[in-house]
Amino acid sequence: MAEKTLITFIQNALSLSNTPLTIRREPSIEGDDHKVFFIDGHDNYILRVTKPRPGRGYSGSEMQRREIAIHDLIRSEYERRGLSSAMIPRSVASCILDDDKDGDETTSASLEVVLKGATLDDVPATSRTLTNLTTLLVILRSIPVSRLEERLGVKVPMLEYPELMQWRSDAVEAWRRLVRNDQLGGVNWGVPPETSLEEYIETKTAFMEEIRAFSLGNGKDDEIVLTHNDIKGEHILISHTDGSITGILDWADVGLGSPAIDIAGVLLTVGTTATIKVAREAGYGEKVILEGIMFGRCMCVTRLDDRLNGNDTQTPVPLLKQQLLVSLQD
Fold first, then answer.
1. Residue 109: exposed, middle, or buried by beta-carbon count in 10 A (0-12, 13-18, 19+)?
2. Per-residue pLDDT tens for 104-148?
């Protein structure tokens, strides 16, 4: 990808054809499916280049079109309720980078308005933060999913429903491996005196029977909603002054799935007590809340194990341990 191509795109988008520009890449805030560039002298904009992710099955241009369409849809839902939509990313121009094609694996660029604030990884949540998280879940739940692809003109993937029994089994095995390898040091996990460290994750996920009981007493099909699918502290920006959410970032994994997926994301961001409050106020019942807590705790364990004993070579270990700790706190 030629830097000159990106600069020309920015100049055309901002009507700066005669103005020299320089851009600088910021790998520290990138994901595995996008690159990020800041534009010197134009701090209100950011350039996001979407690249195909191996195994995803979508080109960069498809992923970008879906994100932009979802952003527009979510903003319209906020505005329809008389609420500010300023925390949702907004693209002012986009293009396919013709010089960076690999068959159908096209890469695309989007010039977006910068969203500012501190991440929830760095600043604690306030009551305003939790209210805003509740609103986000309400908005996502309110969007009709029937024929959504037809209405948006883009593909919206179906997300696999978490198989909680398998997730718990995998998490217990992963936790025991972390204990055996002495890889849980440096954190006070809050293990009570009567429980060994090796048994701790089993006690923190010992509510499968409660979930089954709710399932037997319900008889309804599990709900499918529009799902952000990557809620976590680094993707939530908040105000330093009152904790209100100023940015909800990285919608690349958006899809249709169980609300437990996003409840799990809230869990590893603000903890169990706050998550229960947020999910209940968003209108969710106890079954899906427990599913979200189970999924979130198991996911955090397996992610840490994958980082220390598996294929993940990039995610910071302190971040994964912090997310796991937050998810386990009652």
1. buried
2. 456 889 999 999 999 999 999 999 999 999 999 999 999 999 999
Separation in Å, CA 25 to CA 8, 38, 140: 16, 6, 32
How many Å apart are CA 239 and CA 284, to the nearest integer? 27
The answer to whether the beta carbons of residues 304 and 321 sit under 8 Å apart is yes
Both tokens assigned to 148: 């959504």
Q: Which two tokens stand for residue 214?
A: 């709710």
Assess contact for 126 and 245: CB atoms under 8 A.
no
Q: Which residues lie closer than 8 Å to 262 by C-beta, 6 or more apart?
A: 137, 140, 227, 228, 229, 231, 292
Tokens 């302190």 locate to 318
What φ, ψ does residue 38 adopt, rounded to 5°? -95, 155
What is the C-alpha to C-alpha distance for residues 300 and 171, in angstroms, rounded to an integer? 8
Cα separation, 227 vs 262, in Å, equals 6
Helix axes 272-281, 259-270, angle to 10 degrees: 140
In a domain, 122, yes or no: no
Instruction: Provide the domain count of the chain.
Output: 2
Interhelix angle 259-270/317-328, rounded to 10 degrees, is 100
Q: Is residue 15 located within the same domain as residue 94?
A: yes
In this structure, the answer to whether residues 295 and 164 fall within a common structural domain is yes
Q: 238 with 295: CB under 8 angstroms?
A: no
Per-residue pLDDT tens for 26-61?
Answer: 877 777 678 899 999 999 999 998 876 666 667 778
Give residue 272's identity as a one-letter amino acid code: T
Q: Domain limits at 110?
A: 3-114
Shared domain check, 270 and 242: yes
Q: What is the CA radius of gyration of the chain?
A: 21
Query: What does residue 322 show for φ and ψ, rounded to 5 degrees?
Result: -65, -45
Supply the CATH number for residue 215's domain: 3.90.1200
First-to-last alpha carbon distance for the chain, in angstroms, is 48
